[in-house]
Amino acid sequence: MGHAAELLGVRQGFLRSLDAAKLLTPQRSAGGHRRYSRYQLRIAARAHELVAAGTPLEAACRIIILEDQLAEARRINTELAQKPDN
After folding, report:
1. How far apart are CA 38 and CA 27, in angstroms?
2. CA-wise closest residue to 66 among 82, 20, 58
C-alpha cells in the first residue's frame, strides 16, 4: 500500500478510506498487504482528484461509479452500432 500511495501522492489512509467506502477492493498478498491493479490505481487517482477539488468522499465514489457505468454503456453502444443488421 505504501508504494501505491507514493505513486499517487496520497496518504495510505486515503487508500484505506477508498477500501472502507467499497470503491476499491484490493487483492491481498500472502503477508496481508494490499495490492492494487492499474485500474484501481486510476480509480484512486480520480477519487483523489475529486476530493482535492472539494467533493466529499461519498459523492466522489458515486461520481466515479457513474462515470464507469457511462463508459461501459458507450462501449456497448459502439459495439452494437458496428454490428451488421441481421
Report:
1. 12
2. 58
- 79's CB contacts (< 8 A; 6+ apart) are none
Distance of alpha carbon 9 from the chain centroid: 15
Which amino acid type is present at position 70?
Answer: L
Residue-wise pLDDT tens digits, 2-35 = 899 999 999 999 999 999 999 999 999 999 888 9
Contact between 61 and 25 under an 8 Å Cβ cutoff? The reply is: no
pLDDT tens for each residue of 32-48: 888 999 999 999 999 99
Task: Give this prediction's pTM.
Answer: 0.83
Alpha carbons 18 and 10: distance in angstroms, whole number? 12
- End-to-end Cα, the chain, rounded Å: 50
